[in-house]
Amino acid sequence: MAAWQAGMATALALSCVAPAVADVYRSERPDGLLEFTSQAHDSSYQLYLRDAPPAQPSRVAKRGKIGDTASGRKHEVHALIEKFSRKHAVDSALVRAVVEVESKGNIRAVSPKGAIGAMQLMPATAAMYGVTDATDPAQNIEAGILHLKYLLSLHKGNLPLTLAAYNAGEGTVSRYSKRIPPYRETMLYVAAVLARLQSNNLE
User: Fold this and answer.
1) Assessment of whether the complete model's pTM goes beyond 0.85
2) Which residues form the Transglycosylase SLT domain (predicted)?
């Protein structure tokens, strides 16, 4: 079983969660598995997190479909994801999902907090993996994949915690006793990536 599958099986299942504006509902199945969706399918679903339209422009500039940037590097982005996912034994569908949610594949994306490129690397994270130019797609994507692999190992394959740590930082997840931090952005981020992953694996 892949690491992301183990994390899904032991933590939560996602379906129909839009990565833009969407409330998140929670339901606990008889087997104890939690399910989060963007709508209440029956009375067992309770509102878990109410989203709201962003008060300011998107954190990533010029976002579009994955790889659909001004330089038209869609195939390059996909090729780099596949290449480095195989090299480092990380599920490429997971990497694609992270890239979709982080930057929509925009290799030139820069967030207000200083995260750079398709994988939205913070300078400190880039430095951890010897990145000399975070705007270089190959260095950016490989370092992001290595960081995902590290976080998956750190959290023993628990994908929701891995994604929470990728978004909010491993120290933040640790401070909350290895639980998803109660931040709206992080909770919606985890839901959005898992929903995108589910979609990728159905393609």
Assistant:
1) no
2) 80-178
Q: How many CA atoms lie within 13 A of 77 on its CB side?
A: 26
- Determine, yes or no, domain membership for 10: no
Three-class secondary structure of residue 48 per DSSP: strand
**Does residue 77 sit within a domain?**
yes
Q: Does 42 map to a domain?
A: no
Indicate the number of domains in the chain.
1
| In-domain check, residue 152 | yes
Q: Please write the tens of the pLDDT for every residue from 141-197.
A: 999 999 999 999 999 999 999 999 999 999 999 999 888 999 989 999 999 999 889
Which of 102, 170, 185, 203 is flagged as catalytic? 102
Residue 131: which CATH number? 1.10.530.10
Over residues 106-142, the pLDDT tens digits come to 999 999 999 999 999 999 999 999 999 999 999 999 9
